[in-house]
Amino acid sequence: MDLQTYLDQAQKIVFLTGAGVSTASGIPDYRSKGGLYGGKERPEYLLSRTCLAKEPQKFYAFVQKMYYPKAQPNVIHQKMAQLAQKGRAKIITQNIDDLHRQAGTPEDCLVEFHGNLYEIFCQKCGQRHLSYQDYLASPIHIGCGGILRPDIILYEEGIPTSRLQRAIVAIQRADLLVVCGTSLVVYPFADLLEYRQSRAQVVALNREALSLPRGAQQIIGDAREQFAQVRV
Known about the structure:
Elements: H1 3-9, E1 13-17, H2 43-46, H3 49-54, H4 56-63, H5 75-85, E2 89-93, H6 99-102, E3 110-112, E4 115-122, H7 132-137, E5 148-152, H8 161-173, E6 176-180, E7 201-206, E8 217-220, H9 223-228
Parallel strand pairs: 1-2, 1-6, 2-3, 6-7, 7-8
Antiparallel strand pairs: 4-5
């Protein structure tokens, strides 16, 4: 079956998305050749709680490279958002680029599993919703002198319980799970499929075949082309 058929037959859809969804918006993925993680130092350290605490300038220099404020949602984000607006879908994303939200996905239909780069807070005074533009200009909070950070999940940090629970509940209620733009190699995100109903259909949309649970279906191709044909 094609993607349209799977979507038409489903009552409750969950999209599980990763970096590949945003490459069409001009944001490079992380682990491919030439991706953000291709430098000499391990990203597992540069994006760790330890690095932020012990070498905040090194952390800051690296995380600045992750911002693409001019990027716009593409047709994948838009079609998923439209399905969410109609109450037919929820989105659980590994992405921290804010594009699902910008596409119009309702807050109650979106789980940003690893957080959001554009949500900035001060580690010293706790003030939140600070300007990401100010953060890109300086990591120091002019209000109290504390060190700012984006509200993303770093290595050595766990997923907040409430966020994990929201994702699990969405998975448990779905009759269709669509994996798009992720190779499902990052945990605990990749474990979310284990919470699905036995009757739920799993479909992966990717350029290459993935290792998926038994019974899952795969659509090999360009996700942007596939979603451009979707009628919502």
